[in-house]
Amino acid sequence: MTIFHKYGNIHINADGLSRWALANTPENPAWVPQEEHHIEGICVTDIGTEFFSQVKESYKIDKNCHILSQLLMKDLKDPSLSSKLDEIWKKAYDEGRFHLLDRILYHRTKHTSGHLSEDRTLERVKTCSWWPNWKKDVSEYYQICDRFQKANTATGKKFGMMIQLQEPKSPWEIVHMDWVTALPPGGDRSYNACLVLVDRYSKTPMFLPFHKDDTAMDTAIMIWNKVISHTGLFQNIISDRDPKFTSAI
Length: 249
Known about the structure:
Retrovirus_Pol_polyprotein; Nucleotidyltransferase, domain 5; RNA-binding
């Protein structure tokens, strides 16, 4: 495998022809057939405030809705009211499917559908509903929903503070390592990956040919034979969390 350096002003990933946008027609060699989806009709409806007023007034007539409204109020004094609900309503109430927001009763069809993360909830609402300031309303509901907070509490360790990297005092004391993969096969052994090592002190790079499927042991042996035998043992290695770097060989 032969590596050629290109200066920054001529290192362009795509030339002018590859950037030429062609129409997606049968004459284009990269043509992809697309299905046509006909929209039969779109209906936009604005619900007036009188609708919500009628719903709230109807709660006084319907026995189950009236009881649920009392049960879900913050100043509830008599939780035994749930025993007066019809069987289906009581089961849904015990499963936590009812919510009272701005004196309007909301019902959730699935027990887990309303306790996703805030982003996933926004995605679900976006597919079926819209109203003015809907994102703000969903975010505010997420902040006050007790089950939301309990179900989406971060369980991992908190991220630590950023630490300034140590400055080396001699060459090859601290090195950076990273992989370049998805290369076209090259050389007698058809190498298709490259391990790049850069000395933090002198900025000297080294390039080692590899195969994408080489193991952590193959990587360690190659570094020992081709690099450390010339530079000496490194004191620190800076890399990502690639298994070939973090593996306990």
